[in-house]
UniProtKB/TrEMBL annotation:
Lineage: Bacteria, Bacillati, Actinomycetota, Actinomycetes, Kitasatosporales
GO molecular function terms noted in the UniProt entry: cadmium ion sensor activity; DNA binding; DNA-binding transcription factor activity; lead ion binding
Protein name: HTH-type transcriptional regulator CmtR
Keyword match Transcription: yes
Ranges of residues in domain HTH arsR-type: 3-100
NCBIfam families for this protein: HTH_metalloreg (NF033788)
Function according to Swiss-Prot or TrEMBL: Metal-responsive transcriptional repressor for the cmt operon. Binding of cadmium or lead causes the repressor to dissociate from the DNA.
UniProt xrefs under SMART domains: HTH_ARSR
Assembly information from the UniProt record: Homodimer.
Keyword annotations of the record: Cadmium, DNA-binding, Metal-binding, Transcription, Transcription regulation
Matches recorded under CDD domains: HTH_ARSR
GO biological process: response to cadmium ion; response to lead ion
Length: 111
């Protein structure tokens, strides 16, 4: 049974998912079209094992879903509005001081 998460939980999950460059690349790739894991791994230049871990994180965060396709499984964004949100985030102007890092950038983890 699916439940709707509170707004703060949704934003925190989205933020954690975006905190990793590989997960960002996966989301941006899936923004264009659904994809198979092997194709994603090749396109992003990462091992299939590493990609699988990131896809599991994105699934656990509720941002991507699997779609069976015969013996294979495709991944796609869980909701088309996520693609629009990614576009809006990319278009937003962010003030970044080049001599500073994000305080949480050292934290590795997932949802």
């Amino acid at each position: 049974m699916l439940t709707v998460a509170p707004d703060i939980d949704v934003l925190a999950r989205f933020g954690r998912a975006l905190a990793d460059p590989i997960r960002c690349a996966i989301l941006l790739t899936l923004r264009q079209a659904p994809a198979y894991p092997a194709d994603l791994a090749d396109a992003l230049g990462v091992s299939r094992t590493r990609l699988s871990n990131h896809l599991a994180c994105l699934r656990d965060c509720g941002l991507v879903v699997t779609v069976p396709d015969g013996r294979r499984t495709q991944y796609e964004l869980a909701d088309e509005r996520l693609g629009h949100a990614l576009d809006d985030l990319r278009a937003a102007v962010v003030a970044v001081a080049t001599d500073r890092t994000c305080p949480d950038s050292e934290e590795k983890g997932c949802c």
